[in-house]
Design goal:
The structure holds two protein chains of two kinds. Chain A is α/β, with parallel strands linked by helices. Chain A contains eight helices and nine strands. Chain B is globular and about 65 Å long. Classes of the chains: A alpha/beta, B mainly alpha. Chain A: This is ATP-binding cassette domain-containing protein.
Chain lengths: 237, 231
């Protein structure tokens, strides 16, 4: 665990999001504990992305509460489904994020270099971020989030637009980050990926959290018929 | 007519001092106005683009309307402001290049601000979540968005430059078209044409067109190159 005080567990209590009369999320109660990666799973429209964004603080729930166990402001970061990289060099993108996070000016350069080197991106540090390949852009976005020293890292379908080699590189990054003690909370609808990375699974369907189960048990014997159908590859509506 | 063209060519190639003075003054006035309008208009447009406050829609409509503000009317209003008995008469600006800079700034500020608002508003749709996720306040996002929109914003600045350099009514009224002091390319063209000196008018017209073309081509080329090299 990095940082003096753990901001986990994150306690979500009866979290709901109602937009124009529609319940996009309803009655979601879950604790996210320190430790193994949590995979947010479910079909499209299940509310995975909304749940992540509410936890991260980008969205306010219309009912219920989301509470961190410590001051979480700078201690949690998120890699959006389609991360926006600024029209500047890869390194300058990381420096910009560090500046927004309040890192002292004198430290930013060294921390950005360290983050890029850590994930084998040193060679592209000076390249314009917008001209990188899709896989490189995604890895840069993750390195940028990692550079902020988060205790919790949210990732929203980080490999959905990547080819197999890009996917593998991103999964390796996530494994390394998780091993450092950073709590990973990640949405994915890729079953293989979930099997490879998950410590536990939060299965969403129709805006509700249907089950929160340790990974081996979930893949062995899911508790709800919806999850069983999802694992079978049946379409869920 | 052909004689006029020949004489015009001669004027341009000979580096006539009177002609040079007019061209330099025009550029000085227009570029100063563009600089001031940019310093105000870029951040102002970006601010209006990403903030929500009561009266914002009215300001957006007003800015768009002022993009087409009739220059002679703007000139008249600034004349009234700067005239001896006007509220800003003590500045002694009327009939000086300073007054012309004020007039052109007033004319192009709405163009720069309005086009900037458009560009930044579109950018904000893509950037908002990312910048908020990284902990950026809206005010802090303004320089980030302006820098990332730099290639599109160049068009806003060129539009401002075009409007300022082509304008004649306002600078005529507040500058007075004084020979050797406040005579610009456009006011000189108007004057020389009415006097029948078509050669000078044509020469000035050609130079004005060439300068505008050169500036646009240069800006476009630079932006293309920078975009290719720097993303």
């Amino acid at each position: 665990m990095r940082g003096p005080l753990s901001i986990l567990p994150l306690r979500c209590r009866s979290v709901g999001l109602n937009v124009r009369g529609r319940d996009l999320l309803k009655d979601v109660t879950a604790d996210l504990m320190p430790g193994v990666p949590s995979m947010i799973m479910g079909p499209n429209g299940a509310g995975k992305s909304l749940f992540l964004r509410i936890c991260h603080g980008l969205l306010q729930p219309t009912s219920g509460s989301v509470e961190w166990s410590g001051p979480a402001g700078r201690a949690q970061a998120m890699v959006l489904q389609r991360p926006v990289l600024l029209r500047r060099s890869a390194r300058a993108n990381v420096i910009h994020a560090l500046a927004l996070a309040g890192a002292p000016r004198s430290e930013r350069g060294a921390r950005a270099d360290a983050a890029l080197e850590r994930f084998g991106l040193g060679a592209i540090a000076a390249r314009p971020a917008r001209l990188l390949s899709g896989g490189e852009q995604q890895r840069l976005a993750i390195a940028r989030a990692w550079a902020l020293n988060p205790q919790v890292l949210f990732l929203d379908e980080p490999t959905s637009a990547l080819d197999p080699s890009g996917t593998r590189a991103v999964e390796e990054m996530i494994t390394v980050i998780a091993r450092e003690g950073v709590k990973i909370v990640m949405a994915t609808h890729d079953l293989g990926q979930a099997r490879r990375l998950a410590g536990e699974v939060l299965f969403f369907h129709g805006g509700r959290l249907r089950e929160q189960t340790p990974a081996p048990a979930f893949f062995e014997k899911p508790q709800t018929p919806e999850a069983a159908a999802f694992l079978n590859g049946d379409l869920l509506w | 007519m052909p004689e006029a063209f020949t004489a015009a060519l001669q004027l341009v190639t000979s580096g006539d001092p009177e002609l040079t003075r007019i061209v330099v003054l025009s550029l000085r006035v227009t570029l100063s106005a563009l600089l001031i309008a940019s310093l105000i208009g870029l951040p102002l447009g970006a601010f209006i683009a990403i903030t929500r406050f009561p009266g914002r829609p009215a300001i957006v409509v007003l800015l768009n309307t002022f993009m087409g503000f009739p220059p002679v009317v703007a000139g008249l209003l600034i004349y009234l402001l700067l005239s001896r008995s006007g509220p800003l008469g003590a500045l002694g600006l009327l009939f000086t290049p300073g007054a012309m800079i004020v007039a052109q700034t007033v004319l192009i500020l709405p163009i720069v601000a309005s086009l900037t608002r458009q560009v930044v508003e579109d950018l904000w749709v893509d950037y908002e979540e990312q910048l908020r996720s990284l902990g950026s306040s809206r005010l802090r996002a303004i320089p980030t968005l302006l820098w990332d929109g730099r290639y599109s914003l160049l068009t806003a600045l060129l539009a401002g430059f075009g409007r300022a350099s082509a304008e004649v009514g306002a600078v005529m009224i507040v500058g007075g078209n004084i020979a050797g002091y406040t005579r610009t390319m456009t006011t000189a063209i108007a004057l020389e044409t009415s006097k029948g000196d078509l050669a000078l008018a044509l020469a000035l017209g050609a130079i004005l067109l060439a300068l505008t073309l050169a500036l646009n081509a240069g800006a476009f080329g630079t932006a293309r190159l920078a975009q290719r090299v720097g993303g």
